Amino acid sequence: MFVKYLLSCVGLLLWGMQLQAQIFVAPSGNDLNSGTFEQPFATITKAHSVAQAGDTISVRGGVYPLLTTVNLSKYGTATQRIHLLAYPGERPILDFSGMALSGSNRGIRLQGWYWHIKGLDIKGAGDNGILVDNGSYNIIEFCSLSENRDTGLQLANGAAYNQIINCDSYNNADLSHGNADGFAPKLTVGTGNSFYGCRAWQNSDDGFDGYLRGADDVTTVLEHCWIFKNGYLSSGVASNGNGNGFKLGGGDNGNSDSLKHNVILKSCIAFDNRVKGFDQNNNRGSMTIHNGSAYRNGTNYSLSQTLVSGKILTVINSLAVGPFGSIGSFAVQQTNSWMLPFTVTAADFVSLDTTGMRGPRKPDGGLPDVPFLRLAGGSGLIDAGTNVEIPYNGAAPDIGAFESGGPITSMGPDNLLPGSFSVFQNYPNPFNPETMIEFELPLLGEVSMQVFDIAGRLVKDILHGELGAGRYRMRWDGTDALARRAASGVYLAVVQYGGQKKTLKLQLLK
Ligand SMILES: [Ca+2]
Ligand SMILES: [Ca+2]
Ligand SMILES: [Ca+2]
Ligand SMILES: [Ca+2]
Q1: CB 284 within 8 Å of CB 310
Q2: Exposed, middle or buried by CB within 10 Å (0-12, 13-18, 19+), for 175?
Q3: What spacing in Å lies between the alpha carbon of 168 and ligand 1's midpoint?
Q4: How confident is the chain (510 residues) per 10-residue block, as mean pLDDT?
Q5: Per-residue confidence (pLDDT) for residue 423, from 0 to 100
Q6: 422-507 maps to which CATH number?
Q7: Domain ranges of the chain
Q8: Do the two domains 20-293 and 422-507 of this chain adopt the same fold?
């Protein structure tokens, strides 16, 4: 009895410690309110003043005209992030366009750690839309940054290990045009920042800029990012800025030939940038471009300056439509579209029309499905690549940023990464002809997924590759199986990871 009483006290105590508040903000709110759903605050700044680790600030849709910076300086923890989220199904717009033009007038200045910010539009700030100023381990997801009067999203002052997921940065322009980039882990940035599923277009300077002054030998990763039409203003007129897509580094004055930004780009696309698509600038760090695609940039690839000892330039499975540009002979190159035996013509693609690339995102923030630069059936670029540990369909990876034969979708890291390897029942089930299978991985590792018939014969190799921690969704098109006229509609999906094997029963309706 006593033990039971003690346990219930401990239980209450633990429960009390984990109590997480929901704090509401609405355009119709008032900062003298209590911050509940019925009595929301008017400003994120007020909500921030009462928020603690683990809390969620839920921001209702609508326009918030703001004249001063929103400072986010509080700290969450790895397991108790502070969430700043759009209210489900709504879209808040933080409109700073009445703010004075000034180098200190950022829209959001994020000095805190372990924030998860999702679903906000930030426009018109007097300087950066968001400045991550030493803030680290933050997730910034499904936000847009536009019409700011310097770089849309900048990381500085040692900002490290931030994940920027499914964000758009466009139509940002400074007075001189020479500074406003879309995304900029530059100058004094820290290491370990990553960009996933991000787009930057029509920024007056560069789309992505990793130029250093102060920082050295830092690493940044980009995956599935589309960078286009930079070096133009929102009117479409050419700007006076640099006009590059991915500017991978470089320095100035006394250190211009020594600073190292190690940049890893996977499945990234640069097109229609005014000057260069993939631009080394004078970066001396390691650069890895796997499955890049470049189209109609002033120069597609410009990577020819010797690196410092120990650093490597690697370009594999990459595509250029038209002249590829210049890549130094010191580079490691394999199976790029400009190398033998490949030739590239318009017939290799479903479409070379860029329409839709700046179109609306999916409801979960994912990139839209657009035919541009996808490989047409029968292209010699299909299954012609080298295995670089990016998941692929068919016998081998394709050349370029889009793998043909069905989407492989990472649903992106969540605020809490999965604790174990799980495979979820497919949906729909039964199905015809298409079904989805989701799984979660707790750590980076090799994973495979295959479909067998009930006699144990392999029907489809869906996935082989290395994936990071997170939740993933795979599609299986059962027409492969229907074509074989198999006797039964039951198939087995086998997912293997880290020495474990999980099997799902799939019911195909004929
Ligand atoms: Ca500035
Ligand atoms: Ca510039
Ligand atoms: Ca720049
Ligand atoms: Ca393939």
Answers
A1: no
A2: exposed
A3: 19
A4: 40 47 97 98 98 97 98 95 96 98 98 97 98 97 98 98 97 98 98 97 98 96 97 98 97 83 98 98 97 98 96 98 98 98 96 96 93 94 94 93 73 55 86 84 83 86 79 79 68 90 88
A5: 92
A6: 2.60.40.10
A7: 20-293, 422-507
A8: no
Spacing, Cα 179 to ligand 2 middle (Å): 5
CATH topology of domain 20-293: Pectate Lyase C-like (2.160.20)
Classify residue 346 as exposed, middle or buried by CB count within 10 Å of its CB (0-12, 13-18, 19+).
Answer: exposed
Return the structure tokens found at 399: 């050349």
Q: CA-CA distance, 351 to 446, in Å (whole number)? A: 33
What SS3 class is residue 45? helix
Per-residue pLDDT, 439: 87
Closest to 131 (Cα-Cα) out of 102, 104, 113, 167: 104
Judge residue 416's burial from the number of C-beta atoms within 10 Å of its C-beta, 0-12 exposed, 13-18 middle, 19 or more buried.
exposed
Residues that place a CB less than 5 A from ion ligand 3: 181, 205-206, 209
Catalytic residues: 247
Per DSSP bridges, beta strands 332-334 and 313-316 are parallel
pLDDT value for 468: 73
**CA gap 390, 468 in Å, rounded:** 10
- Sequence-distant (≥ 6) Cβ neighbours of residue 135 within 8 angstroms: 72, 110, 111, 112, 113, 115, 159, 162
| Closest ligand by atom to 184 CA | 3
Single-letter amino acid code for the residue at 31: D
Q: Ligand 3 centre and the CA of 205: distance in Å?
A: 5
Query: Are 491 and 452 spatial neighbours (Cβ–Cβ below 8 Å)?
Result: yes
